[in-house]
Amino acid sequence: MPEYAGLKFWASKVNSQGGVYVTALRKKVPIKIVSYNDQSSATTATSLYTQLIKVNHVNILVAVFWFSID
Question: Which InterPro entries does this UniProt record tie to the protein (predicted)?
Answer without folding.
Answer: Peripla_BP_I
